TrEMBL record:
Residues 21-125 form the Heterokaryon incompatibility domain. InterPro entries: DUF8212 (IPR058525), HET (IPR010730). It comes from Sodiomyces alkalinus (strain CBS 110278 / VKM F-3762 / F11) (Alkaliphilic filamentous fungus). This is HET-domain-containing protein. The lineage of its organism: Eukaryota, Fungi, Dikarya, Ascomycota, Pezizomycotina. It holds the Pfam family DUF8212. Residues 235-258 form the DUF8212 domain.
Length: 308
């Protein structure tokens, strides 16, 4: 795991037992910094993403020392000297590194001392959440769903790096905006929600790369699978559901609405093409299989499931 030292602004690598770290949740924008950019000061100076990282380091350092944001300067912040940012702490030129990171990312957010959600399109000059909070692009992105659920502690920052609330203090508004039940946000017990319910939380979200609409849900379902960029979003989502079927005794995976599929699609199988088709599955309950899925095979382009 690579972490950025908030004082030296240099990456350090930890094979096991990383030190306490803060983690950033944000919606990507133009000019984000890659791992390779960190070795090129001339490139960094031109990228808005570098300003974001420097500001994040400065914010965490202030919280750690208690100079500002006294409400965040508790004992859990004092040992934090590192941060993790998805733009520059993953080597995206390495297929192996990218795959390992995405399959581990949910746990990395879970293990962070604190997660700060930076909402660049929100301004809260009085330190109170404005009406623009729910309109933030942060609520529309695929990856930020796991970043909302996984951390033990999640704090919100506006576009000027002002703290204006937490997942706990804003839980009613977050629940209304995301349709995620209060008890899930408060207690972090999403594992009690059935497959269809969890899929419905991702129904209105988008990702830049089509395959990521499946990959961003790996941690929420606790499954792993190889990443195959180029396979397409539908194929990636089918593979995700196949992995879920191996682990869950829950027929709600089939509780999706196919009425929106175009007539030219052809044969409609048992699995949904994307989370969007679970938009109305929020109130579905888990129903165990009468026997468990044993295997799957392809037959004429369709997936056939066999049960014991």
């Amino acid at each position: 795991m690579r972490l950025l030292n908030i004082e030296t602004l240099k990456l350090e690598e930890f094979v096991a037992d990383p030190p306490p770290y803060a983690i950033l949740s944000h919606a990507w924008e133009a000019g984000e910094v890659t791992l390779q950019d960190l070795d090129r000061p001339d490139v960094l100076a031109l990228k808005p993403g570098w300003t974001k990282i420097v500001n994040f380091c400065a914010f965490v350092n202030r919280c750690r020392k208690g100079n500002r944001h006294a409400e965040l300067a508790d004992e859990s912040m004092s040992p934090v000297r590192y941060i993790w940012v998805d733009t520059c702490c993953i080597d995206k030129t390495s297929t192996a590194d990218l795959s390992e990171s995405i399959n581990s990312m949910f746990q990395w957010y879970r293990d962070a001392a604190v997660c700060f959600a930076y909402l660049s399109d929100v301004q809260c000059p009085e330190g109170q959440p404005s009406v623009t909070f729910e309109q933030s692009r942060w609520f529309t992105r695929g990856w930020t769903l796991q970043e909302l659920l996984a951390p033990k502690s999640l704090e919100f920052l506006d576009g000027s790096w002002r703290h204006f609330g937490s997942r706990a203090s804003l839980v009613d508004r977050v629940s209304q905006r995301t349709r995620i039940p209060l008890q899930v946000l408060v207690l972090g017990e999403w594992s009690r929600s059935c497959i269809a319910q969890r899929m419905s939380w991702a129904a209105g979200r988008q990702t830049t790369r089509p395959e990521d609409i499946a990959y961003c849900l790996l941690g929420i379902f606790g499954v792993n699978m190889p990443l195959l960029y180029g396979e397409g979003g539908e194929r990636a989502f089918f593979r995700l559901q196949e992995e879920i079927l191996k682990e869950f005794d829950d027929q709600s995976i089939f509780a999706w609405d196919a009425s929106g599929i175009d007539e030219t699609w052809g044969t409609i199988g048992a699995l949904a093409p994307s989370p969007a088709y679970f938009a109305d599955s929020l109130d579905v309950e888990a129903i165990p299989f009468m026997g468990r899925p044993m295997s799957s095979t392809k037959s004429g382009g369709s997936v056939v499931y066999l049960w014991r």
